[in-house]
């Protein structure tokens, strides 16, 4: 089967048909030539059918043989597998035990890594919390400092305004006092000047009264009566 000897018979038939095919010449336009050509083609098709039949029979034998080969293969492999199992089963048991140890070690390492990561996450969280707390305290201190600064500025402004107001009030009071004193001084000056002026006019009147012959005492009494408006329709024009 390896050399496909089953096709030897049809190979010889094909060789003869090929030799005949090269020699044959048909006049296709002639009825006899046309008939002969069609007959030759029919014979060649029979060769194709022969090839298919040989192939079909050979393939059926090959399939049957293949099934026998597969069955024998499974049988032989089963015998070898049985021999392998005698020695492989203890080795598999050892490998299983090793795998248990490996799996346990792997789990231990994974647990340690998980614990290490959890500790790292906890430390990072603590650091973050501390940083956030510090930032919050810093912000609160800054806010308090700003409020203190604003309050101090407001107090300083209020104090300055109060001092300015007090100074303004003191200046106004001082000015008012100065104006009052100046007014009183002016008033006193006018009073003194008026008194002096009146005294001069009254002295002049006394001189006139004494010139007309009145003695000093009578002249003084008449002047006093005029000053006191004791004499109707008589007054002094100061």
Describe what this molecule looks like in 3D.
The structure is a single chain. α1 (8-23) crosses α2. The chain is built from three helices and no strands. The protein has helices spanning 8-23, 31-211, 216-227. It has a domain at 190-227. Helices cover 88% and strands 0% of the residues. The termini are far apart. With 238 residues, the protein is mainly alpha-helical.
Tertiary shape = rod-shaped
Element pattern in H and E: HHH
H/I helix tally? 3
Level of helix content? over 70%
Q: Could you tell me the radius of gyration in angstroms?
A: 76 Å
Query: Could you tell me how far the N terminus lies from the C terminus, measured between alpha carbons in angstroms?
Result: 177 Å
Strand content: under 5%
Largest sheet, strands/sense/barrel: none
Return the average pLDDT rounded to an integer: 89
User: What is the total tally of β strands?
Assistant: 0
- Which spans of ≥5 residues are poorly predicted at pLDDT below 50? none
Class per helix and strand makeup: mainly alpha
């Amino acid at each position: 089967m390896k050399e496909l000897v089953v096709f030897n018979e049809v190979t010889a038939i094909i060789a003869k048909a090929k030799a005949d095919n090269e020699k044959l010449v048909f006049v296709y336009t002639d009825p006899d030539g046309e008939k002969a050509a069609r007959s030759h083609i029919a014979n060649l098709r029979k060769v194709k059918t022969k090839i298919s039949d040989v192939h079909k029979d050979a393939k059926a034998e090959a399939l049957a043989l293949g099934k026998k080969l597969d069955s024998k293969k499974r049988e032989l492999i089963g015998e070898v597998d049985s021999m392998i199992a005698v020695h492989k089963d203890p080795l598999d048991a050892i490998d299983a035990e090793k795998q248990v140890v490996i799996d346990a070690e792997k789990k231990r390492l994974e647990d340690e890594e998980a614990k290490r990561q959890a500790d790292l996450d906890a430390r990072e969280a603590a650091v973050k919390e501390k940083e956030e707390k510090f930032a919050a305290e810093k912000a609160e201190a800054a806010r308090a400092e700003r409020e203190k600064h604003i309050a101090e500025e407001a107090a300083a402004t209020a104090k300055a305004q109060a001092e300015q107001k007090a100074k303004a009030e003191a200046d106004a009071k001082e000015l008012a006092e100065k104006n009052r004193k100046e007014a009183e001084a002016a008033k006193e000056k006018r009073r003194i000047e008026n008194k002096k002026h009146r005294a001069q006019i009254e002295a002049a009147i006394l001189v006139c009264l004494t010139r007309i012959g009145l003695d000093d005492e009578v002249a003084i009494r008449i002047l006093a009566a005029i000053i006191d408006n004791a004499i109707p329709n008589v007054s002094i024009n100061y």
